[in-house]
Amino acid sequence: MKKTFNSADIVAGNKVIFDVGGNKYRIVGLVAFRSKRIFVLFVGTHAQYGAIDVKDL
User: Fold this and answer.
1) Each residue of 23-39: b (16+ CB within 10 Å) or e?
2) Per-residue pLDDT at 23
3) What is the sign of the dihedral through the CA atoms of 54, 33, 6 and 18?
4) Domain boundaries, the chain
5) pTM for the structure as a whole
């Protein structure tokens, strides 16, 4: 995953955090590696991301 998306961080199993928009925004997705799909769980600003717990998504 890091080879393709160097700003991505894998956390809590299959959840991945992507930094986008010059590090202004975050996208949290649940990655289904077998089916090669990402289910978007959260899209927001860096400040909004700081107010959530990724484990609870």
Assistant:
1) eeebbbbebeeeeeebe
2) 85
3) negative
4) 9-50
5) 0.84
